[in-house]
Amino acid sequence: MNESSRQPKFLEAYTPAAYLIDAVALDVALAPKGARVASTLTLRPNPVAAGGEPLVLDGEALTLDRIALNGRALEPGDYTLSPGKLTIHMLPAEPFTLEIVTRCDPEANTELSGLYRSRGTYCTQCEPEGFRRITYFLDRPDILAVYTVRIEGDRDTTPVLLSNGNLVESGEITGTGRHFAIWHDPFPKPSYLFALVGGDLASIHDTFTTASGRRVALGIYVEPGKEDRCGWAMESLKRAMRWDEERFGLEYDLDVFNIVAVSDFNMGAMENKGLNIFNDKLVLARPDSASDGDYASIESVIAHEYFHNWTGDRVTCRDWFQLCLKEGLTVFRDQEFTGDVRMGPVERIITARLLKTHQFPEDAGPLAHPVRPASYIEINNFYTSTVYEKGAEVCRMLQTLLGRDAFRKGIDLYFERHDGEAATVEDFVAAMADASGRDLTQFMLWYTQSGTPELACSLDYDPHKKIARLKVSQVVPPTPGQTSKEPMHIPLKVGLIGANGDELPLNIDGEALPDGLLEVTEREQVFEFHDVPAPPTPSLLRDFSAPVRLTTSLDSDQIEFLMMHDSDPFNRWQAAQTYATNLMTAAARNGFDEGSVTSKEAVRLAQALAATVRDETLGSAYRAEALKLPSESDIARELGRNVDTEAVLHARNALRAKIGETIGETLTEIYGAAAPRGEFSPDPESAGLRALRNAALDLLTATETQDAIERTLRHYQDASNMTDAIMALSILSHVQSPVRDKALADFYERWQDEPLVLDKWFAVQARAVRPDSVETVRGLLAHPKFSLKNPNRVRALIGSFAQANPSGFNRGDGAGYRLVAEQALAIDQFNPHVAARLLGAFESWYTLEPRRQAHAKAALESLAGQELSTDSYEIVTKTLGGA
């Protein structure tokens, strides 16, 4: 390993490139073992750089055949080849042309970065630094150029040749059996957005007419025989295109928009300009093989990658420290889209749950970093929940503080100023500040300070003055590299609820507060509400208005009151989550006390949930969310330290069983009333009914009675769609009954030749909470359908076990840690990106009780003694050193 690659890079050390590239002409001749890439670069000295410097190009896994400057072939003394670099000396002071011919080996490229060949299809992945594996280049996001790409390949094996932009020309190469296609992208883009695909692909096509009347040709390309599974993706794309025009006034700008779905892909999808490349699990859907969750994910990710056309492509990021500028903003946009086309309150619950489950632990652990990191060793490791999900919350807070209209004006100004440029977070926030007239200096701390702010709130009532005083204090805890924090600018939405459940008007200093928005900017603040007729119950952090941890002085009676009466849908759901979490953490805190979760308080929770699910005005999807208890990870997060994962598991299972037993009659009624009618439809209402029915089934089966288990088996056997089948299989996977093995065997028999569905079979077993889960996963590693070189299969089995089976991964004898460490080490030899992702599961090891902590530390120390990639080295050393 090159030690220089392990040196951290710093935001403050950013300097502009010495040269700019205005145009790129690529001629790519595809061949499995030796693809030939001829690049012609039009360069000029950067006027803001010092001048007279050599040109240093990035390159990895390349063979250099030829290099010429302004048509003159360079001699070895004119340039220097070193690991990862090509340095060219003595360059002219005026614009010049550089011709470089290289060869690479797509078939040997197991990292799936750059140009690779998988299952007969040539594909590229260039974000963040994959273009340097195709040709020598200034492979950094602030180098924007116009690309013209000629691709040639064998007519029989690569009849489809695609790249960015619009197709200019195509034809046969006489007498060779090969053909070519020339693509031109008129919009300057960085190298990470370059894309190329060549293969024997089937496709479906449609058109979209933009608001200005332009006709855009749409295409989705997949492996032959899978065309019938692309309809939902195409519908989702057209919905996203129309929504972006209506909500943000953003119209598509090319003549074509293509999507290619491939089986072997390290990421979910990639937003390359005009040619999005997707992991096929986020494109292919059919009722018998895709669940409602799959349909929702496809809709969301198709939209996300399309929205990048403006927030990421037309305006890109100056450097990789600004990654949140494109990802956080685009996640926010896809969340808004999903909230509009589905049910907004449910989408808010889902996003908040995701943030709390994944990002809050990241913020509290050794891998904590700001939304915009100040340093990194390997940029691949910063495609994190903090950058994406917390980055989205930062954009949402801006919209909350400024109002939707001013936020839209800020977006418009941002594009007006920076279209065709590589921008920074400061550019984005400055556009928001200038458009709204607000001072956002303090708000910038959300981008630069790591850690989850903690808000403590208490309400006092003065019956004589009819004043309710809300005291708010904030603390931002220390994180690695940041021990002292400044107060944040936090939007806090609140409401006051009277004894009869009515919303009370909010009046501060004679001013009405119709939206209930308070702005917390100091360590300690007091807000006085006047003309409050009687002691109210406060509803705090409505709509999850900021990504903070909230503690209040509310007692269990007040929390139960909010469960029944809060008009804010999010806070009504959150009240039930808080009530359940309090019960389970009490039970798990010192071993496992069953009495804490079978008490009268548990019965009160169950009855409140029953009242919620009987209220049909709330919508099926919302009622389904109400029935889902906090996860084991949620409970562990609240415990903080000395976590016994086995006690956490027992506490959660006991409460689930108590709820299923207490309101079994209501759940049975719900299960029957939500039975499917007519043909399957993925629309939100139909999906909500299935979700509600399956949530009721899950709690009924938690009682582990024979009747409940047999009902779940019938649910599996009668399932007419994948949603019901996989939910029933998942529920059965946890039970100690022969029906589990029967259902698993049946599912495998049906779907063994469908890779995406078989991934579900592997994942269900990896997540199954059983004493022998480690042994089950080890056995499946030897299954003939498993391969360490298939990222989807690795994520399904090893990733699901490490991330979604806390009791298995954290088993008391340390076997789970050893299993994941061994497999990550093996994968690291050929795909560091996937390996490093798996190792992120160790991030909270230091919060465990001493025995588990020792086992986890030993596994990490064993890894630290191995020869690791830069990706895995950074994760392991930070995880060990930051605890």
Shape: globular
Task: State the low-pLDDT regions, or none.
Answer: none
Q: Main β-sheet, in a few words? A: 8 strands, mixed
Oligomer: single chain
Note the total helix count. Answer: 27
| Percentage of β-strand residues | 15-25%
The overall pLDDT average reads 96
Task: Give the strand line-up of the largest sheet.
Answer: 6-5-9-3-2-12-15-14
Helix content: 40-55%
Report the strand count.
34
Gyration radius from CA atoms, angstroms: 28 Å
Q: Could you say which structural class the secondary elements and strand pairing correspond to?
A: alpha+beta
Whole-Å distance between the termini? 26 Å
Question: What does the model show?
Answer:
- This protein has 883 residues and is of the alpha+beta class.
- It contains 27 helices and 34 strands.
- It has an eight-stranded mixed sheet, with no helix packed on it. A five-stranded mixed sheet has the order 17-18-19-21-20, covered by helices on one side.
- Strand 7 (79-82) and strand 8 form a beta hairpin.
- Helix 15 packs antiparallel against helix 16 (684-701).
- The longest helix is centred in the middle third of the chain and has 21 residues, at 344-364.
- The radius of gyration is 28 Å and the shape is globular.
- The mean pLDDT is 96.
